[in-house]
TrEMBL record:
Protein name in UniProt: Nucleoside triphosphate pyrophosphohydrolase
Pfam families noted in UniProt: MazG (PF03819)
Gene3D superfamilies reported in the protein's UniProt record: MazG-like (1.10.287.1080)
EC numbers: 3.6.1.9
Gene encoding the protein: mazG
Organism: Bradyrhizobium jicamae
């Protein structure tokens, strides 16, 4: 098996990895739910490479993301649901349909102002068609939250769910009330620790995170951006610990938690005085 610029080679590689007995044991164990987190991770890696303007890295990360598409398509093909070619056909059909001003058989000229309205109209038509293909459901009630996309990252979706609910007054009027809710959720986690029930602890932790997102919304902070900033701050301070220990000829493994914590506090002071 040799590398190739042809997508068919990647499809062949994935088929080989998923072939029982001769394939990769790890790949054979995976399913849609276990691969989905990797798909999300690779999308973030693409965004990170773009933010750094690293085109060599972007090329590699786009390949990793493409692999995710091929992986899901292969698993679907194994279940006789659809194949990679069906994915390509579906997106090409969608793009042609959504750009009649570009791909129209006749004169499809349209003014820039009309492009967005046409796009939204066609998207609405597609949504209605998808709904018609799904099994019949109770349509007597449509939730206010139905318009919040299920595919959003969890932090962003929590923010949108809360924002949508707030439009009808289901909200706190004071950030301090949200702080009280955060304390309440923290207390519930502490109580759950006594029971040592992993499922309950995960649920209570999710409640706490949801409340923290609510606080971010109330103080005008984007939770994703705020967390990215904290991640970067953590990395800087941890690097300070590593460098300080290295200057002493020591390693992380040889330091006590108390020593590392003291260096962490030094990093905090250094950041504030810089």
């Amino acid at each position: 098996m040799t590398p190739s610029r042809d997508i068919s080679r990647l499809i062949e590689i994935m088929a080989a990895l998923r072939t029982p007995v001769t394939g990769c044991p790890w790949d054979l164990e995976q399913d849609f739910s276990t691969i989905a987190p990797y798909t999300i991770e690779e999308a973030y890696e693409v965004a990170d490479a773009i933010a750094r303007s690293d085109f060599e890295d972007l090329r590699d990360e786009l390949g990793d993301l493409l692999l995710q598409v091929v992986y899901h398509a292969r698993m679907a093909e194994e279940q006789d649901a659809f194949a990679f070619g069906d994915v390509v056909e579906a997106i090409t059909r969608k793009m042609i349909r959504r750009h009649p001003h570009v791909f129209a058989d006749k004169d499809g000229n349209i003014k820039p102002a009309g492009v967005k309205s046409a796009w939204e109209r066609i998207k609405a038509e597609e949504k209605a068609e998808r709904a018609a293909r799904r099994p019949a459901q109770d349509t007597a009630h449509t939730s206010l939250l139905a318009s919040v996309k299920a595919g959003l990252p969890a932090l962003s979706r929590a923010m949108e769910l809360q924002r949508k609910a707030s439009t009808v007054g289901f909200d706190w009027n004071d950030p301090r009330a949200v702080l009280a809710k955060i304390r309440e959720e923290a207390d519930e986690i502490e109580a759950a620790l006594d029971g040592n029930d992993a499922k309950e602890l995960a649920e209570e932790t999710g409640d706490l995170m949801f409340a923290v997102v609510n606080l971010a919304r109330h103080v005008g902070a984007d939770p994703e951006t705020a967390l990215r900033g904290t991640n970067a701050k953590f990395e800087r301070r941890f690097a300070y610990i590593e460098k300080a220990l290295a200057a002493q000829g020591r390693s992380l493994e040889g330091a006590t938690l108390e020593e590392m914590d003291a260096l962490w506090n030094e990093a905090k002071v250094a950041a504030h005085t810089a």
